[in-house]
Amino acid sequence: MAIIGEIRKHSGIAVAVVGIAIAAFIIGDLAKGGNSQPALGIIDGEEVGYNRFYELITERENLIKQQQQTTQITNEQSYQIREDIWRELVETKLTEKEYNQLGLQVSQRELSDMYIGDFVHPYLRQMFTDPSTGVYNTQVIAQYVNNFDQLTPEQQIEWVNLEKYVKTSRQQEKYNMLIAKGFYTPSKMAEKMAEIENHTADARVISLPFQTVTDDQITITEEDYKKFYEEHKKEYKQDEARDLDFIIFPVTPSQNDLDNIKTEFLATWEEFQNIDDSEIAIFVNSESEADKRYDSTFVKASSFAAPFDSLIANAEAGQYIKPYVIGTQWMMAKVEKVENRPDSLRASVIVVLNNKLGSQIARTPEQAQALTDSLERELKAGKLDFNQAVMAFSDDPTKTENQGDMGWALDGQYGLLNEQIVATALNDIFVFERPDKGGFHIVKVTGKTPATKKFRVATIVRDIVPSDVTANEIYAQANKFASEATSYEAMLTAAQQQNLMVRSADFTPSNANRLPGIENARSIIQWAFNEDTKIGSVAPQVFESDDMYIVVALKDKREKGYASLDQVRKYIENQVRLEKKAEVLMAKAEEAIKSTQDINVLASKLQANVDSVSAINFNGYSFGKFGPEMKALGSVATAKGAKLIAPIKGSYGIYLIQVDNVAPISADVNTTRQRMEMETQQKVRYIMEVLKENAEIKDNRVIYF
Prior knowledge:
This protein is α+β, with helices and mostly antiparallel strands. Helix content is 44%, strand content 21%. The strands form 6 sheets. The protein has a 4-stranded antiparallel beta sheet with strand order 18-3-20-19. Strand 7 and strand 8 form a beta hairpin. 24% of the residues are buried.
């Protein structure tokens, strides 16, 4: 049916919408069901069951497989799917609660207006606008609705998800607008800010950098650490995490492996040179890596790595390229053919089918042959326009969209038609009989890029990888190390004695997928977050990831809340040191200022220089040559007139400042208010973080994944 064909044109809605919305529309069932299973998580007091969560993962994976036309999902994709679904569950649960409490709804009339009215949803407009005319196609929308029962179950799910996404996004818009409009800047506040911003100031500055105080001039006590920690404690708020130390035992080929691989490959080389041309493809497929099978495509020499690129570029047909090590592979090749060929091709097609492909086609093979012969004669004689013939005779269901144009494709990507397209002159026509005897393709060559020198090369590639014997030996080494390192301290000592590098991964969250140097580290993360794993313990098992074995120790556990002083000590050590240096310089500056208010005399007493800053304004981001010293900038920008400002502790030093000149600039109160309100309203993007902060959320996924 034509309507189904039209609808299938837009089947991409599933892929585009599902990544945004699918979890949002199953959250209700997910959160309300599955309580018989151990809780995978808790969202705002409501449990999420493992079975229902896994069903949602499976559905998402299937849709991605459908989109990418593959049967496999990578580990990274699986991880990202789990992250996306959990995030969507949390966000949807929390926002639904807000919508219900506020009574935010989208009426049927409003929803209809988003499809076919004056306020079409941007996503719908993008999906259903005719690219050739730029006109939004409401007829296709109507076709979806009116022929819903003709869609496949998958397409029905896609459409329902789209409807729910459109509705939910409108609720989100309303909610965000309510929040944004809730911010208000009082007139007095705007007037005060305009007053502060309506002038610039010039000043002279004495800078006493912290670096001028040496470490031996200060003494840091435990009380100094405690004082700094208490003053900055809120800066060290953290989520639950683990600090890990680990040692990687890379699995690399031994010298014996390298020698054996070389010997085997050179033996293959001798055999390769004696293989008959008709058997080369079979030989390559049997001797090369699985992902490096025989390829008959013509390619440029530059597509090969050095030195093969230059060797092939200068080779003749029939010439062999001897074995070379390129990176982590051995490679040999035979140049089978050398031709001048275009890089890209374009062609149009008239498809003439017969009833061997099904009873829906009435034409017999004899009738298809006769029609094809007739069309070929008329087209080659110039008596029939190709595009008109496409519309009148082609059985291609997409002909109304592309008029038979198959588009540009790289040389080699036109499949069974490729060689005939290359061999056929521009604007000439040839006939191709389908291998299934189901009809013919009448092909017109409509485009070719300029020909360049290209090669058909039969290559044999062998990976240089460790043998099973070597891998087992390295595993035994790692296992011995793990069994003897009975504690974290013992692991560090043994690593130092054996000259092994210890790597760290502090602040590792439960949902992490990688560690430094380790692409897939989920099994390690699960061990670290197991409630039976104690601080200071070394994992009894050796972990495996890609081409390595890993021995791991749990250095510390970070609970949700504020990090302890011991946990942040190494991170604040330098800041505490600067605080002590600031005390020395501040005392020195305050003593000097007791005896004089003259900036030049102060500079002499402090053995410092006097620098200048100009046009300092409250909206600025830099305090002249001193960079982002915001305390100094604010003090100068808000000065009422010429004055000496008391010593200020900045980020890089202590500053004594003489404000010399304050110059007015124009500042409109209304403009200031509008800017302040706009800046405040931008905080809407932090709504979700606030909702999460105030909700009870427990993520137990690490138990399962």
